[in-house]
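In response to the reviewer comment on reproducibility (Comment 2.3), we provide here a single inverse folding case reported in full, input and output, so that an independent group could reproduce the run without further information from us. The structure tokens appear first.
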């Protein structure tokens, strides 16, 4: 009986660890290039702003639930941050979705998502104006106080950096394949069965 209880406890703990590790921790590291296949929204001005990448999908319930919260943050901190919803779905799927009021783009091959190790959505990664990852996590944990602290900490750090060294380290690569919107059978769009929604039970 004791062995059975121990096995159950281990299984539960393992499940928790898997859910908790839905992304690779890159905080403090330089971000990989932001790979954009095609912008759905107008192209944002990124110079001097925090970049908030919201990994999401239209079929993901928690993603849709968190969008109003992200809309609010994007509007309130418009002078300091740029929020970008990045999906692996097709252009037509994203354009058909209504309710997202921040910038939107697609990368149907999921290159950035794979590079930064995102294994569950929704997931947010914040990059400071120098291209350093400064926050990662579930969008519902991204509060105004968190953003205020990130901005404050960056301002303090900036005071110790010579102005001629301050530059945008984030590059944007656009490699849109028009064939994806023409029903190309080689499209790599992934559906709900291929990406685990790690936060569905939260």
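Designed residues, in position order:
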């Amino acid at each position: 009986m004791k062995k059975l209880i121990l096995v159950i406890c281990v299984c539960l703990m393992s499940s928790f660890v898997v859910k908790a590790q839905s992304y690779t921790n890159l905080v403090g590291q330089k971000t990989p290039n932001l790979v954009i296949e095609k912008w759905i929204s107008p192209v944002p001005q990124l110079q001097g702003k925090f970049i908030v990448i919201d990994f999401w999908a239209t079929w993901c319930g928690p993603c849709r639930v968190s969008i109003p919260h992200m809309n609010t943050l994007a509007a309130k901190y418009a002078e300091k941050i740029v929020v970008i919803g990045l999906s692996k779905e097709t252009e037509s799927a994203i354009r058909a979705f209504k309710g997202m009021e921040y910038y939107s783009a697609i990368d149907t091959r999921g290159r950035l998502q794979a590079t930064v190790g995102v294994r569950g959505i929704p997931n947010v990664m914040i990059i400071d104006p120098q291209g350093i990852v400064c926050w990662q996590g579930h969008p519902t944990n991204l509060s105004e106080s968190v953003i205020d602290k990130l901005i404050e900490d960056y301002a303090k750090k900036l005071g110790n950096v010579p102005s001629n060294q301050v530059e945008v380290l984030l590059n944007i690569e656009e490699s849109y394949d028009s064939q994806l919107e023409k029903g190309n059978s080689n499209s790599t769009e992934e559906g709900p069965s291929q990406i685990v929604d790690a936060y569905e039970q939260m």
